[in-house]
Amino acid sequence: MLPFKIAVAQFRGGQSVSANLAACLRLMGQASQQAAKMIFFPEASDFIGNPSEEAWTLAHPLVPAGPFLERICTEAKQLGMWCSVGIHEKSPFPGRLYNTHVLISDQGLIIESYRKIHLFDVDIANGPRLMESQNTVAGDELVAPVSTPIGKVGLGICYDLRFPEMALALRRCGADILTYPSAFTAKTGEAHWEILLRSRAIETQSYVVAAAQVGQHSATRFSYGHAMIVDPWGKVVADCGGSEEGIAIAPIELPILERIRTEMPVLNHRRYDIFSNQ
């Protein structure tokens, strides 16, 4: 069986939903031309950097889907392509939204959604102060990996990447691929982005796919980019770079994943009796 190709995407999102949608559709077309079976988009692909009052008016529930998500679903069906995308979802709490990762099938159906568990509340020296919890409601559950043509996909978002217990839990639930749609800051991205992605891949022996926002969104916010795909051995097999909109393509080869897990069965060696099932 030939391996399936996937595309990881990055672009510079902004406050305009229509402009961000146009970027996503443009990148979906490029991925389709390269025969990708699935494309992965960043966190906050619908809009980013908007004042909280405006963000509330722009966001929608998943059902019925808003115009951004509805159009992505339509394009996925037309291209016969699965899609992972990060959006803002309206919550029951006025003025505060969910940071949500949506998985869409090649029939244009929303198959699963995950609400970000770990919120990014930090004040970085010589960097931005970002208090995600002021405008975002934290999710409260892990979502089981989803069966897709490329394997079982485990859903995370950005800051979740820093918590290995979540990645290990998804692996124990059967994940072959871990996904982290992101908008990493330039400062933290330069220091930690690739290291964290490769670490999650090595310790779970899984593919890691991390789409990324890139470039300057406002006077004070700049995203690192370098959307990546990392294989189960920890090798970076695709990297979009740190400046331009674009996609990078790589194959998902599940026989290689199975060989790595068989030859080095680290999950079987974990001492759950000592480390409390972590």
TrEMBL record:
PANTHER family: DEAMINATED GLUTATHIONE AMIDASE (PTHR23088:SF27), NITRILASE-RELATED (PTHR23088). The gene is NIT1. CDD domains: nit (cd07572). This is Nitrilase. InterPro entries: C-N_Hydrolase (IPR003010), C-N_Hydrolase_sf (IPR036526), Nit1/2_C-N_Hydrolase (IPR045254), UPF0012_CS (IPR001110). The keyword Hydrolase applies. Keywords: Hydrolase. It comes from the Eukaryota. One of its GO terms (molecular function) is hydrolase activity, acting on carbon-nitrogen (but not peptide) bonds, in linear amides. Residues 4-254 form the CN hydrolase domain. It holds the Pfam family CN_hydrolase.
